[in-house]
Amino acid sequence: MDQKAMYKLSYGLFVLTSAAGGKESGCIINTAGQVTSQPNRISIAVNKANFTHDLVKEGGRFNLSILSEAASFDTFKHFGFQTGREVDKFAGYEACRRSDSGLYYVTAGTNGFISATVEQSIDLGSHTLFIAGVNDMEVLSDVPSATYAYYQAHIKPAPQKPAAPAGKTVWRCKVCGYVYEGEELPEDFICPLCKHPASDFEKVTV
User: Which of 11, 70, 92, 195 has fewest C-beta within 10 Å?
Assistant: First the structure.
């Protein structure tokens, strides 16, 4: 079975934001889509390792900011490579506004946002699938949405060569460049930076 066939699916990229218990945060996700139009509903799949997942589950509402081809890698680093459990991602962050729901949405490198309320959740093991009713949405620009393929080709910097002794085997995350040292990568390994699974790592001998 060729796991790379999954890369042929078309994915968008989004900043998911939510709040609960007096805390606010956001994270990068790549699984969101409309599931019904009457009534208007969307679905999002969120890794349980993300702090924002817990806020959505507890608070029952979220904003989905749709990243465009104008998005910079800094946005991905800010919302994807640090955890809201340790960092207040909105402290001093100015490229955002509050929607009528009171939640933040991102204004830099986005072309729209959707506000929604969770109606149903499904446990998928590593992720939770949230089905939500749309409350509000707005177009922010006409710049095309950034696909996962566009991110890989035009936004993400080329991975740096791993810093390891010559002849040593490492595993490099194809999404963010994180390096795991070892001959074998555990099947259940999750990248500590971007939260992608072992299937998104490549074996490299340096």
Answer: 92
pLDDT at residue 142 in the model: 97
108 near 74, Cβ under 8 Å?
no
Give the three-state DSSP class for 90: coil
Q: Give whole-number Cα distances, 166 to 31, 37, 178, 196, in Å.
A: 38, 56, 18, 27
Chain segment 90-101, per-residue pLDDT in tens: 999 999 999 999
Helix residue ranges, H only, the chain: 51-59, 73-80, 148-150
| 13 within 8 A of 67, measured Cβ to Cβ | yes
Which residue type sits at 59?
Answer: G
**Within 10 A of 132 (CB to CB), how many other CB atoms are there?**
25
